[in-house]
Protein: phosphoserine phosphatase
Organism: Pythium oligandrum
Amino acid sequence: MWGLGRVTRHASRSVAPRALGSAATRRIGATRFASQNVQDLWRSVGAVCFDVDSTVCEDEGIDVLAEHCGAGNAVKEWTTKAMDGNVKFEDALAARLSIIKPSKRDIETCLENHPPRLTKGIKELIEKLQANNIEVFFVSGGFRLMIEPVAKQLNVPLRNIYANTIFFDDKGDYAGFDDTELTSRDGGKPEAIKVIKKTHGHNVIAMVGDGATDLQARPPADLFVGFGGIVTRQVVKENADWFVTNFSDLMAALPALK
């Protein structure tokens, strides 16, 4: 999510809309663009749900926290497995937290020393979405305590965060995590989208993210936009309805403000 070093692989901008079929793309030279159908669907959404790590923010928050706590290398291996879809997310989450065992103070000092690094263009994109009366949510396998400062910075209501909760004892030491949170397990993001549709009344929702767990959100998400601006995961690139490497593409497809 933010912190100690940017892990970036440059990716060519392309579209890989497996769900919508080959007619959903047109090819010009070596670049793929979203078809009119995909762009129309993007413009029709009532809400957009963003992953946070390596999407809204440049780094993987749990990796930054692990590095801060002296457990960086062991945790990064689990993060890569989880984001590539090679292990169940709940197993990776439990394994990483059992290695880090972060106290409340650890998280506070991590945020102080390594404040959020927003991905280029995300602030402008969210502002334009909100100006078009499109509601923004954060649906993340990260930790609520680390995501709330990002939401405040981007004017996203805290009630619109679906993320994981860490428990602490009376001394502030690590005491486990809430495994009833929807995003604490594999397949949890689709469940979060269902809840958002039901409780907020949005008929058309887009999910934007970089990982395999984000890809799982469609359906019930009506559109999945894969983001490769920080890291490209092949499974996401190949199966996204629209794959972008910068947020300006999504901004350009929104209606112009009057």
